[in-house]
Amino acid sequence: MKRLILPILLLLPALASAQVAPLPQGVTAPVFGLPSVIDGGGNIPIPVVGPTSCSTPAYTFSGATTSGYGFASSTACVVLGGTQRLGITTSGATFAVPIVTVANGTTTAPLTLTNGTLLATATANTLENDGAAFYDTMDTTNGRRYADSWNYFRLTGSGSGITTIADFFGSNSAIPLVANGIYKIEWNAWFSQATAGTATWTITTATTNLANLTAEYMCSNIAGIGTVNPPQTAGVNVTNSSATALPVTGSEANGATHYCKITALLTAGNGSSNTRLRLTMSAGTATPLINSYYTVRRLSGGNVGTFAP
After folding, report:
1. Which of 75, 202, 231, 279 is the most exposed place for a label (fewest CB within 10 A)?
2. What is the pLDDT at residue 293?
């Protein structure tokens, strides 16, 4: 028995040094397959495992201190499985190594950025999210940049004929608006007319009125898109809007295809709401055509970038 116990005792220090490393306060790490949060008061055991895709088949920690730690090899990596998480909650802490993420089926995103407050001073090589948009800053000369993300809706088939006021893109085409959110919307509408007549485009908002709305249209000539002639254009600038009709177009020719691009910059009211584009014809019917589409961008509440006087 003594011969068995002595070798085990001699191995204990080596096992401890191989599987125990101090981590900074607030770091979440797996302990024998279970999530654990370091309280800054001591070491936790870290199982030495074989990563699934590294040139170094296992990892160890070295140089561990309360101010930081590193890998023994520049090619080593950490692999977390299942629902385990690795996070840093200490203010000012940074990752100085590449991070590679993999989506976990259809329920877990590869990367999630929590909504926060933008930096008081834009810093180069940063990515931010304030709950309204994502931003990146490549350099401090031009400063923070707005990420051009947008929603997209397209007619996959031609719609039903419209005479009296009706949704151009169908009944399921309303755009949800966040309270006090600022949006840029571009509707691109192609349609045919059975009878010559004027068109009235109306931006209708339900539940809570828009705080303000600036909108314009640019439409093909009254003869249709096949004729090279001056286009039609008009617009509005209103406040407290629930249903705003843009100026009536000219009498557009029958038997022709027409196009209108309606652009709106709006601020939602102080409550949830939704908005949509509607069309009214003075005579006959207009048929929305396949590939008509619109895009929606939610904008920042303030200017984005660095500008000179």
Report:
1. 75
2. 98
Burial call 103-124: b when 16+ CB within 10 Å, e when fewer? eeeeeeeeeeeeeeebeeebee
pLDDT for 90-130, tens place per residue? 555 555 555 566 556 677 777 778 888 999 999 999 999 98
In the structure encoding, which two tokens stand for residue 197, read together? Answer: 């007549």
Among candidates 190, 191, 213, which has minimal Cα distance to 202?
A: 213
Distances (CA, A) of 48 to 29, 77, 78: 13, 11, 10
CA end-to-end span of the chain: 85
Residues 262 and 201: beta-carbon distance below 8 Å = yes
- At residue 201, the pLDDT reads 98
Compute CA 252 distance to the chain's CA centroid, rounded to the nearest angstrom. 39
Q: In sequence order, which ranges of the chain are alpha helices (DSSP H)?
A: 2-19
* Rounded-to-integer distance, Cα 186 and Cα 165, Å: 20
Radius of gyration (Cα) for the chain, nearest Å?
30
In the chain, pLDDT over 70 holds for what percent of residues? 66
**Residue 216 corresponds to which tokens in the numbers above?**
């314009």
Cβ atoms within 10 Å, residue 127: 11
Q: What share of the chain is helix, strand, coil (3-state, %, to 5)?
A: 5, 40, 55
What is the C-alpha to C-alpha distance for residues 46 and 25, in angstroms, rounded to an integer? 15
Report the distance separating Cα 19 and Cα 60, nearest Å.
Answer: 8
Supply the DSSP string of 241-300, one letter for each residue.
Answer: ESEEEPPP---BPTTSEEEEEEEEEEE--SS-EEEEEEEEESSS-EEE-TT-EEEEEEE-
> How many whole angstroms separate alpha carbon 153 and alpha carbon 150?
10
pLDDT in tens, 20-63: 334 443 334 433 333 333 333 333 333 333 344 444 433 333 44
On average, the pLDDT of the chain sits at: 77
* Alpha carbon distance 264, 276 (integer Å): 11
